[in-house]
Structure formats: C-alpha cells, structure tokens
Amino acid sequence: MDEGKRLKHGIDERPFTCQVCSKGFKTRPHLIQHGAVHSDQRPFGCDVCGKTFKSQREVRAHTRGFTQLPVFLNVKFVTKSSAHVTH
Ligand SMILES: [Zn+2]
Ligand SMILES: [Zn+2]
Question: How far is the CA of 39 from the centre of ligand 2 (A)?
C-alpha cells in the first residue's frame, strides 16, 4: 500500500501520448517536437555526402565517423598544404 511512493507529486502525469511509440509527454509542444522523430523531416544535412538527418546530434555523430577514416577530403587538404611547402 505504498502508492504515495509511486506518484510523488503527480508530476509523472503525461496526458499527451505519441500514437506511434506510445511515449507520454507532459505538454503538447513536447509531443509535437517528438513527432519529428517519426516523420520524414530531415532538416540537417551532412556537408560531405549530402545525407540528411533528423537532428544536429545525428549529423555530428555521422561526421565523427568521417574523421576516423582516411577521407578523400583530407587528400585535398594534404595536396594543398604540400604544394605550399616547397623544397
Ligand atoms: Zn513517438
Ligand atoms: Zn556524410
């Protein structure tokens, strides 16, 4: 009979529920913002390959992968700088 423990101050009420993943939200704006996750909106694009993402965080995680690879872009930079350094 410890119901008071479960509902501390009634803060956990989330009347706005996502119809896709059943996640609950406290406010309508939160739910709308979350809806972007399920929509096909990808306003954030990768400058390197043009791939699009739903959030800036995903883009960063994606471009981080590039820096760990011998990227073709780096070749450009190398040739540029090596042309600068003459014997
Ligand atoms: Zn959802
Ligand atoms: Zn990319």
Answer: 21
Whether this model's pTM surpasses 0.70: no
Among 14-18, 49-53, 61-65, 66-70, which range has the highest average pLDDT?
A: 14-18
Task: Measure 33 CA to ligand 1 centroid, in angstroms.
Answer: 10
Centre of ligand 1 to C-alpha 16, Å, is 11
Greatest alpha-carbon pair distance for the chain in Å reads 83
Which residues contact residue 52 at a Cβ distance below 8 angstroms, ignoring those fewer than 6 apart? 42, 43, 44, 45, 46
CA distance 7 to 18: 21
| 71 contacts: CB under 8 Å, gap ≥ 6 | 48
